[in-house]
TrEMBL record:
InterPro entries linked to this entry: Glyco_trans_1, Glyco_trans_4-like_N
Keyword Transferase part of the UniProt annotation: yes
Domain Glycosyl transferase family span(s) in chain numbering: 203-361
Family under the similarity heading: Belongs to the glycosyltransferase group 1 family. Glycosyltransferase 4 subfamily.
Species whose genome carries this gene: Phyllobacterium sophorae
Span of domain Glycosyltransferase subfamily 4-like N-terminal: 15-183
Protein name per Swiss-Prot or TrEMBL: Glycosyl transferase
Keyword Glycosyltransferase: yes
Keywords: Glycosyltransferase, Transferase
Amino acid sequence: MKIVHVISSIDPAKGGPQATCVRLAAAQSALGHDVHIVSYGGREIQKRAFQSARDVPHFSRIVWHLLPDPNRIERVLGLAAARKSRTVLKGASFMHIHGVWEPILKNAAAVARRNQIPYCIQPHGMLDVWSMQQKRLKKHVALALGYRKMLNRAKFLLALNSDEAQLLEPLHLSAPNLIIPNGIFLEEFAELPAKGFFAERLPRLDGKRVVLFLSRLHTKKGLDILAQAFVLLAGSYPDVDLVVAGPDGGARDAFVTLVDQLGIEDRVHLTGPLYGNGKLRALVDASCFCLPSRQEGFSVAITEAMACGLPVVVSDACHFPEVKSAHAGAVVSLDPAEVASALAGILDNPAMASIMGRNGQRLVRENYTWPRIAEQTIQGYQSGDNRDAKMAENSAVLMPAADH
């Protein structure tokens, strides 16, 4: 098959959708398919993106079609992207759209419809209830101006878990849902680096334990909840510091201000974004991973933390109940006291934390791997008419089975 992925940006600073798009495309390429990615990405973004993904297996098989960074007119109209889509979609079997609220995506879907090429849309959490409440009026106007048509005409909407599929229901979209999670390449975690990253990068952390937040610094990620939880923890655990790693998604300044107001500036360390081996070294070196997010589709960061053997504390809004059922960490509410209590439980019991880490590794390795996920997406692309009710019912969940 010729498969064309379309995403608004390949900048790794944009978070999980960019990482998963690249890895899914690479995994599909490894199955022998002709896989292309259409996106915006100027020279600097290309440099960051290709540097962060250079160790992704089969990355070199992907065919790239990158447009310059969009100016204001292109950002609104997406005309250059539409022309690129028309060219790349010639001879394509299927188009996979990542995200929702961008003209490049709506125009690509329109081109696909005109050429009778089926497409799916992977919202990456952008259509759930919390997300729809952000800039609510603007999004409902956008739905009326073509984005609802884009969604309704999709062969299916790819939800990352059953919670995300249920959270789409208030929109009353006519396209059926398929549920396929994100994953990892086992090769990326086959040889984990040695400990010592934080002492090397931040000498003040030498001899200390680290609670690690690794994600975009965005309001939805719950950084304020994390800071308030750490205040409750810090006095009883003088040997534990908080490290916040990730690109600024608009919440960095507010977080720094809150940390100063809470008087924990000496115990909180911001590293900026970490990619590739640096990210793995941070995950291996931490004592616990924490993501008290207000909204997630299927967090790449949680999956990677577990793949590194790290116990995790995540919010129920991360929609990852398997963390609790597999005893790989704790799932908590958006309550700083509950987050702090869960972190304390892990920090107080290293033996249990080690067991949680091993359980998390097993959970990820047996259930969430890109080769299996790539096979499931191909099955979805090639399935019959998903608009048939019976087909939609039978195909509603495509969860990856264990790799052996």
